Amino acid sequence: MAQTTLTALSPLDGRYASKCDALRVFFSEFGLIRFRVQIEIDWLIALSMEPAINELAPFSQETLEELEKLVKQFSVADAEQIKAIETRTNHDVKAMEYWLRERLATNTEVVAAMEFIHFACTSEDINNLSHALMLQGAREQVLLPQLNQIVELLTERAHRYAEMPMLSRTHGQTATPTTVGKELANVVYRLKRQVEQLKNLPILGKINGAVGNYSAHLSAYPHFDWPKFSEQFVVGHGLTFNPYTTQIEPHDNLAEWMHTIMRINTILIDFNRDMWGYISLGYFKQRPKEGEVGSSTMPHKVNPIDFENSEGNLGIANALMAHLAEKLPISRWQRDLTDSTVLRNLGVGIGHSLLAYEACLRGLNKVELDSQRLTEDLLKAWEVLAEPIQTVMRKAGVDNAYDRLKELTRGRAIDAQIIQNFIQGLPLSVQDKDRLLAMTPTNYLGKAIELAKKV
Question: What range does the domain containing 41 cover?
Fold first, then answer.
């Protein structure tokens, strides 16, 4: 069967393929191989520039340009050649090393330095740095721009709707009024904290040999400061050096990454569910898209599919990343291979996250506020003023304030007249009584407007 988007096993490569294109350069098999080639060549160049490695002469400018061009112009055809070699070696990193040797066989300078390709390295020296560069690139070029779009849009809406009163619901029951903007501001503040953590999260890397002790390095150059050299190499790629590892970088850092993205996703699951509920209540209306069908049998339907799609993909993403975070830091003794196949799914959880972020943005751009519906709900909920009335009564020393309001309002239909008659009969100062009489469910908002505008 021909491989097309219709025959793909994963929806990331099928139904949603076009929406994940931005991640393919990082997390595809091609992306992994390309980063491996980059690390191998960078390591060879770094060794050539170190005077203590006197058996390896510095490369000419022409050779340096050829090596850099090999990385910049690395193609799918190049990756396919490496995969063909892998069918013989049954080892992906070794196949890449052999390909480099073949590809550079016409350069006399590199031929003289051929034994310094993959010098003193274990495969995981190359792999861990490749995965680190994947995350680094995806964070800067895809994840942060997409998340910042969500934060910016929610911030704009928080400011726009800062003064729009809305009935709160705690436990699904009517509660102290807020504003639409304040509720959006809550989400903005939560997201910004986590996005900032993602932005500043270090990405660890190592290049220290078979079990992390520089043993092979020192067998060849016993007096050279390999830990310092390795640290400079890792840091030079914008990464943070991990000096203590076994054969693998222990992946605690990858678990931190997964957990940070999971927290972002969990906040958005919460937000998607709230938006779904507000749409159901009629607080937000969805602009119908011409030609779109909401139901195969009910023509009137305009479903909140974008928020539902976002929630579903966030759930899949978090399930995958929870497994990565739990499994990757565990390796038997100095190395086992259980992390290898799991790491190949590094981009899958991030891919589903990206789908969810885009769907959430689509949903937000399709909804508009129904102020009339919001006001109608508020004016049917005069019982929410029981809170300020009993609080002022407590201040004035009126006995059993809470119980008296409970008796008046709990489980009963309350209107403006009932509330105002109750206030008129209270032993309060004129100032307190006038302030309570001026309160309505639409203006009992506390600091909600100010907080929304400040976010």
Answer: 22-119
